[in-house]
Amino acid sequence: MNTASKSTDAPLKGVRVIEMGQLIAGPFAGKTLGDFGADVIKIEAPDGGDPLRNWRMIKEGTSVWWQVQSRNKRSLALDLRSSEGQDIARKLVAEADVLIENFRPGTLEGWGMGWDVLSQLNPGLVMLRISGYGQTGPYRDLPGFGMIGEAMGGLRHLTGEPGRVPVRCGVSIGDTLAALHGVIGILTALYHRKVNGGQGQVIDVALHEAVFNVMESLIPEYSAFGAVREPGGSALPGIAPSNAYPCRDGVVLVAGNGDSIFKRLMHAIGRPDLADAPDLANNAGRVARVDEIDGAIGAWTATRGVVEVLDALSQARVPAGKVYTARDIAEDPHYRARDMILKQATRDGYEVDVPGIVPKLMGTPGGIRSAAPHLGEDTDAVLREVGLGAEQIAVLRARGIVA
């Protein structure tokens, strides 16, 4: 793919992952493991595969989102609702290190693939289960998507302008947070397995809990003070100044909330009176006068262009930045210098820019080893690995069990 992304010493080389489920949360976890060398076998329904293949913008018959979400994976088109398909899945899991699934709780149990069964087949199995509300509790059986998790986790209440309907952040952040927590759990469980006798375990990730885990002081403030945090628009309530300020040709974000940074910021905008005010020397005093401070910064930015503002604040060593669009990201030299945009060849014959690998391991970096597969492209190869011959595969294909 991109020479900077190839590594012969991938840190998860030799780890086999079976990915079940579809769309975002489970597959994003699989994608992350695949980026670092795991052999990820994605099981898809023969009749259409993962719906993400057809989400958002389509090129050459496939979503470009799919190209990044399913890179470094192999596709096995297998009907998990059939007894034959379930038998094959159990054979795969018996030889795997990790199983990822994001079905509604109870689905795998109904297919004869609950933890009680799979752990007997493979005592070292690490099983990530992502669901709306977790595998236990009174809401366990309710359907849950990422947006519901964001709402229950407390995030949606804080997104938007005060007094207006909450808005989503623009991406499926609830699903992605659940996936990342799942990856943390997988890596932790694999380490535990290595140093504690080879025993696997279940990782139970609920979408709303993954969101809730990043909600900072939300609950401690309610517990200690009875305070219900409310939406603050572009500001960071309780920390000042930290806001978005309009310029002649756009908007800049300014984080001047450090004590020394605030002084430099005020001098940069020509307000030494505020810089030297004794009551503004700490955050508590600045919060009390936040409207005045925001007004002063906004008055200064309003008469200047974005580039001029950023240049001035950079010279003053004040954290500031513009609001990036996709075009800004694609054209930014820093993204390119750090290999955060890579050129990926697709199986459909064109190249597309995709996000690079995060995090960056200096000794054993991740990489893009293979493009996202066509539906069932690796079916025969995977089935041969579990001992099926050509005639057996042909029979399964004729019956629609595999494709």
Automatic annotation (TrEMBL):
What Pfam families does this protein's entry cite?
A: CoA_transf_3
What organism is listed for this UniProt entry? Telluria antibiotica
Which SUPFAM superfamilies does the record associate with it?
A: CoA-transferase family III (CaiB/BaiF)
Q: What is this protein called?
A: CoA transferase
Tell whether Transferase is among the UniProt keywords: yes
Question: Carries keyword Secreted?
Answer: no
The chain's coiled-coil residues are none
Q: Which PANTHER family match?
A: SUCCINATE--HYDROXYMETHYLGLUTARATE COA-TRANSFERASE (PTHR48207)
Gene3D superfamilies under this entry? Answer: Crotonobetainyl-coa:carnitine coa-transferase, domain 1, formyl-coa transferase, domain 3
Q: Name the UniProt key words of this record, in alphabetical order.
A: Transferase
Molecular function GO terms recorded: transferase activity
